[in-house]
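Posting for a labmate who doesn't have an account.
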Amino acid sequence: MGKVSVTINGRAFTIGCEEGQEAYLRDLARHLDGHIRDLSGQVGQIGDLRLLLMASLVVADERREAVRRVEALEAEVETLKAADRGRAEGLRSDRERLARSIDKAAERLEALVAASDT
């Protein structure tokens, strides 16, 4: 098991983590600490627990917004896929119609050639 030292609101903490996750955990701690610094700049030092709670709520809000955006993008992708399937079906139909028209034109030409030979 790995260990990583992080600093939150000017205080150092050592946290255990899975091997290889140290850099990721430090990055998460920097993100949380940034929110705590922003909040303490707005409301002052109101205690570690309250600042941590407020920062956690901000992070939870970020996560919820990210999930909402992902869901909206997934819905948009599905809409685009459905439209693409519709266009593909339309193209197939157009090709079939064009092929029938070419066949009919070829039949008429063959009939004209046959009539001129007689």
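Reply:
Got it, the structure tokens are right above this. The helical segments are 22-43, 48-117.
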